[in-house]
TrEMBL record:
Keyword Lyase: yes
GO terms of molecular function: lyase activity
Protein name as it appears in the record: Isocitrate lyase/phosphoenolpyruvate mutase family protein
InterPro entries per the UniProt record, alphabetical: ICL/PEPM
Alphabetical UniProt keywords: Lyase
Pfam name, any one: PEP_mutase
Keyword Lyase in annotation: yes
């Protein structure tokens, strides 16, 4: 069921994309991680498909079902009071009708935004016409449910490195503008891109632009000045957490406990932190 509170969160999230300032959108994988980012002051959070998979003991890919994702969304939205966008990958369905039903289900679990992408597991892109169909049927749910949620349409042109630099730019611009015309509220182009590339994308796409934090160009002030509106962090947080967890496991196997014991986040402090 769509609630009035969810409608308020959806409107708040939508307005963040039309603001003149860039916002950083941290990617989470469970209710605890979402709670942390909310408590530390972030105005919205989004799931990471990789994070959701890792938290369930799987690699990023095909092992997570729509039911797994719906449970994750329900658990997160039950615990936080900020907007949640969901990494919907390619829609978890074999046709647009099934994808629309899946989107409806996630909205009824509390989501107020989606990433929907065109990248296939074989390193190619969906046909543009099929991607546009997906965007259009998901957009139909706005009126059907009376919910102004955000559609963040992603092209994996740079993420999958599908062509040479000039061709990638042409594909990204064509798809980004087509996504917008089909009903997308924001266009997401992840990948390791330099400042010149990001600038061209901002100027060439008639929609708010979302990019991902990457090692080539990550100057927050410059990104905002260029005109990027939404900055995602992807699987960076969850990989960092599991990096330290693996180190703790290795230490314990070798009879060491310093890394686990020598930190200030004591039991009492942890309980206090996770108390609203």
């Amino acid at each position: 069921m769509i609630t009035d509170k969810q409608r308020e969160l959806a409107k708040k999230f939508s307005n963040m994309h039309t603001d003149s300032r860039m916002f950083v959108l941290p990617n989470v994988w469970d209710a605890g991680s979402a709670y942390v980012f909310e408590k530390q002051g972030f105005r919205a959070v989004a799931t990471s498909s990789a994070g959701v998979a890792y938290a369930r003991g799987y690699p990023d890919g095909k092992d997570i079902t729509i039911d797994d994702l719906a449970l994750c969304v329900e658990q997160i939205t039950r615990r936080i009071y900020v907007p949640l966008s969901v990494d919907f990958e390619r829609g978890y369905g074999d046709n647009v009708a099934q994808i629309k039903d899946n989107a409806r289900n996630l909205l009824c679990c509390g989501a107020v935004g989606f990433n929907i992408e065109d990248g296939r597991s074989d390193g190619t892109l969906d046909e543009l016409s099929y991607m546009l169909e997906k965007i259009k049927v998901i957009a139909e749910l706005k009126e059907e449910l009376g919910l102004d949620f955000v559609i963040n349409a992603r092209t994996c042109t740079y993420w999958l490195n599908v062509a040479d630099e000039n061709t990638k730019m042409q594909i990204a611009l064509e798809r980004g503008n087509a996504f917008r015309n089909a009903g997308a509220d924001c266009v997401f182009i992840p990948g390791a891109m330099d400042e010149v590339t990001v600038t061209k994308l901002v100027k060439g796409i008639d929609a708010p632009l979302n990019i991902i934090l990457n090692p080539i160009f990550h100057d927050f002030a410059r990104l905002e000045k260029i005109g990027v509106r939404r900055l995602s962090v992807g699987s960076g947080p969850v990989r960092s957490v599991y990096h330290y967890l693996i180190d703790i496991a290795d230490d314990l196997m070798n009879g060491k406990a310093e890394l686990m014991l020598n930190h200030p986040f004591a039991y009492g402090k942890a309980n206090e932190y996770f108390t609203k």
